[in-house]
Amino acid sequence: MIFKRFAFVLAFLAIIFTAKAQDTTQQIIPNKYNSLAQQQKPYVVLISLDGFRWGLAEKYQAKNLLKIKENGVSANYLKPSYPSLTFPNHYTIATGMYPSHHGIVDNIFYDKKTGRTYKNSDKATALDSTFYGGKPLWTLAEEQEMLSAVFFWPGSEASNNNIRPTYYYKYNEITPLQ
Asked: Is the pLDDT score of 20 beyond 60?
């Protein structure tokens, strides 16, 4: 009898812990595939490590980053756009446009045209596509019938011209970035 109770409690705990571990932030647009033409092309993997000074991968022997660098390309430096802040610079990398042209001019700013405030930590404004001008890399890929996947990149949760990445994660501040 004690064994049955123990087995029941153990099974119950296993179910509870497994359910908690499920990923609920990943978004997938179903039934999308790379076109045949895109399957023949090389993939682009863009990694940005905010505040990661050049040379740190070598200094601390970041094996996976060094392997990616060895088998691909890496930038020797980044000349940041102005202002030198996370959201404006990352959206500049994604669009190739200056902040004054794509609209994300700060992490938090007031937009005189709309009378609204953009705040990177506010989900409602971060999801509002009217703040994001230009076409980010993932939108361009999707327009060319190429799948895209984005993980925590500014603007990636907002629809751009009614286009979203095939795979993306909703930002979740408790997700460890390790």
From this structure: no
Q: In CATH, what number is assigned to the domain containing residue 140?
A: 3.40.720.10
Active site residue 86: yes
The pTM (predicted TM-score) of the whole model is 0.80
Count of domains forming the chain: 1
Cβ proximity of 154 and 87 under 8 Å = yes
> 124-165 pLDDT, tens per residue?
988 999 999 999 999 999 999 999 999 989 999 999 999 999
From the candidates 18, 24, 25, 86, which is the catalytic residue? 86
